[in-house]
Amino acid sequence: MNKILRIVDIAPRVKEYLIEAKEIATHCKPGQFIILRVDKEGERVPFTICDYDAEAGTVTLLVQDVGYSTHKMGKLKEGEFIHDMVGPLGNATDLSEFENVVLVGGGIGCAVIYPQAKLRKAQGKPCTTIIGARTKELLFSIEEFRENSKELLIATDDGSLGTKGFVTTVLQGLIDRGEKIDCVFVVGPMIMMRNVSELTRKYNIHTIVSMNSIMVDGTGMCGGCRLTVDGKTKYACVDGPEFDGHKVDFAEAMNRSGFYREHEGKCKLRGE
Amino acid sequence: MNNSERNKTIHQDPKERICNFKEVSLGFDEKLMLAEADRCLGCKAAPCRKGCPVGIDIPAFIARLKENDMDGAVAQISKDTLLPAICGRVCPQEKQCENFCVRKAKLGGSVAIGALERYVGDYALKSGIVPEKKPENGKKVAVIGSGPSGLTCAADCAMRGMKVTIFEAFHKAGGVLVYGIPEFRLPKDDVVAKEIDKLIALGVEIKLNTVVGKTITIEELQKEYDAIFIGTGAGLPQFMNIPGENLNGVSSANEFLTRVNLMKAYKEDAITPVYCGKKVAVIGAGNVAMDAARTAKRINGEHVYIIYRRGREEMPARGEEIMHAEEEGIEFKLLTNPVEILGQDGKVCGIKCIRMELGEPDASGRRRPVPVEGSEYVIDVDQVIVSLGTSPNPLIRKSCKDIEFSQKGTIIVNEETMMTNVKGIYAGGDAVTGAATVILAMGAGRKAAKAIAEQLGVE
Q: What is the span of the domain harbouring residue A39?
């Protein structure tokens, strides 16, 4: 059981949870994820750890109400408990070899790049950060991003804040103005990660994506999260979640990620 | 001595059972048990024991059964095995103990040792007999994984008065017994949970949702515990590496079975979804393949095929599972090997196979299947479940660099003590042998517990 210490509404249908999880908090690194079950009969749902505090023994998760379990999670209140949580899973993000990094976050994916922004700032190598969403209400932690970035750039589809367009529009602008970029780390919807990877491929800029595949156990056991990287099958849970964006087969990954949407709760015992 | 035929266990009717997840084999009732026990000749040489990986004194416990002395039978079998209710159900008896029974060829067939073992095990569970425990001695043992080897090692250490903590990655204890083997073959609440309750009664602590190497490191465990046993199993699924394997509708048997068994996706009110097609191809012919095929049949499958590149004789599954699968209408496509999975709109729509014929024996002693050129054909399916075995999980390997591993990824141990090259760290079960049986894993857990006791100077 993990106690919810604080809940903050940060955007429409997006909540930030501060959760007690001592062992996870003392062992995790940026980029890793957890799997939780909201209640006793709950499904196992993966979430990236957005922030953690080893001393306080807490982790921060950002949850967007998109399906059955995230909706159920949204009904929990401060002081209540999540049934169980396992982690930290997956590998940590390691951008240490890169001098000039651009972080790109889309929608809820911004939550994943935030700890990197913070870490790089603390290391004295702040990043240029691009965050994007459909409209400005969906963006969050703008001031925190600004504080922890060399420069913060914003894109909204409707132009309600920052550049009107996509994160790729802004990234293209950076490239055009001659910004030195050693690595782009991009987290967001698969289509966005694909489009960013397509753009950077043209300029031969190393690009890391974070794959949020469907998974059950998160320890390499089910193979549900498998994807093709450089022609080889990899597991997002144990080999990732981060991969070279130029080598990921996005068409396949996007096809796989949509699979269970149409099957949620449809297949039951014959005769029942 | 009588020359009676082997007694058959009671079974649920195939037509009924494909509509439910209740146990298929109901074992013996008392009358059948007594009749079958009576068939045991009580051979002094006890050839059956040779066939048992842990050398259970089979004639001795059957002798108690002949007298209907149930407590005596439990006491006797408990000397050699901790999980009779489980092994009686899942051991490949026809290849082990029953294969060596002197009645096998001419005297009405081997004694049904497995079914008798199960009878004893079920009695022990029902009567709630908890093994005796020595006074606590302050020694602490960490057991990683709560499958058969870990459970056994934990129980044996606890009975010797050691304080045992089991670390389990999943939210439920039992390992392959809960995520892999289906309810209709091994009931979770009535059998597995009760075995685990016995451990808890012995004072064993189970820490769920804890991935050793992630949530806590081996080094941390070394500081806190006097000995460590690694029983992390072989959970990594193997795929065929043929085109189309990542299409939607293709999964490992592990994923399919975990969704159904652990997450209860077959139940009306379950939250975890599982995809189950109407025409299902299961690749492989081991126990897990039979489990997957029979599960698919129960959920949605109108046609469920077992696709296997070798012949009937070579199928590695237990005889009883193959028989049950056939009774339930699973269709066997033997000497058939998949070469490509076909898709439409990103989803499985067929599987292209090639016919095989058997050639000379290979390294495994089985005749090597050879493709028949130009014999490719397509089977119309909308789901493919790959069940070609599993290999050890690399998580431990990645997190503990000091332990020696084989090229196959299995942990190298001293076979007498089950100790790894690192003093105080022991291992057993599938993590050491690669995918094998419950009874072998149990035997390894038992051996390790004995060695741990010796190392720590515990009686």
A: 2-89
Q: How many domains does chain A have?
A: 2
* CA–CA dist A127, A122 (Å, integer): 11
- CATH of residue A179's domain is 3.40.50.80
The answer to whether B263 and B269 have CB atoms below 8 angstroms apart is no
Q: What is the ipTM of this complex?
A: 0.89
- Is A270 within a domain? no
Question: Mutating which of B21, B215, B276 best tests the A interface, going by the most A Cβ atoms within 10 A?
Answer: B215
Contact list in B for residue A68 (CB cut-off 8 A) is 271
Cα dihedral: B291, B295, B301, B307 (round 10): -10
pLDDT in tens, A233-264: 999 999 989 999 999 999 999 999 888 766 55
Among chain B residues, CA nearest to A29: B214
CA proximity to A197, closest of A188, A209, A189: A209
Same domain, A79 and A123: no
CATH for A16: 2.40.30.10
The 10s digit of each residue's pLDDT in A102-158 is 999 998 899 889 989 999 999 999 999 999 999 999 998 899 999 999 999 999 999
Whether A121 and A211 map to the same domain: the answer is yes
Structure tokens at B58: 């089979």
Question: Does residue A105 share a domain with residue A165?
Answer: yes
Take residue A48 and report the two structure tokens written for it. 């990236």
Which stretches of chain A sit within 8 Å of chain B by CB?
A: 23-24, 27, 37, 41-44, 68-69, 83-89, 216-217, 219-224, 226-228, 233, 238, 252, 255-256, 259-260, 263-272
Cα A129 to Cα A103: distance, rounded to the nearest angstrom: 5
Judgement on whether residues A145 and A57 belong to the same structural domain of the protein: no
Q: Which residues of B touch A83 (CB under 8 A)?
A: 171
Residues A47 and A132 in one domain: no
